[in-house]
Amino acid sequence: MNDLVTQTRDTSLSGLFYAISFQIVGIIISFMASSVNYAFLLFADTAGHEFALSVPILATALFTIVWGDATLRSQIANIKDTSAAAKKTNAYKDVSAQPYGLLRLMNLGLAIALATSQFTILFN
Known about the structure:
Layout: H1 11-43, H2 50-80, H3 90-96, H4 100-123
Helix pairs in contact: 1-2, 1-4, 2-4
């Protein structure tokens, strides 16, 4: 029993995993909102309601951009704040190796592509 290694809790790694969990929640919210937008656009009579339906489309895109960028920036900040001992862990090595600049660009591109698709359906 004396050979057990004491594990310390690194707050930056905890913050990193909280940011990842918040990102997952944001993805779920964005997916649900986009699904509702598509359901309205595809199955409802939208004639005369174009302006009203533009609001949730823009809100969903804005939420996706802001939430996604904030959580990715939070992950980057927590990676930079990681202690020297935590930098030796596999979790740190795997998560810090992600291409965060590309992920931020993909988040922006996805939000714009979905909003463009929804506006195309709405105005055609």
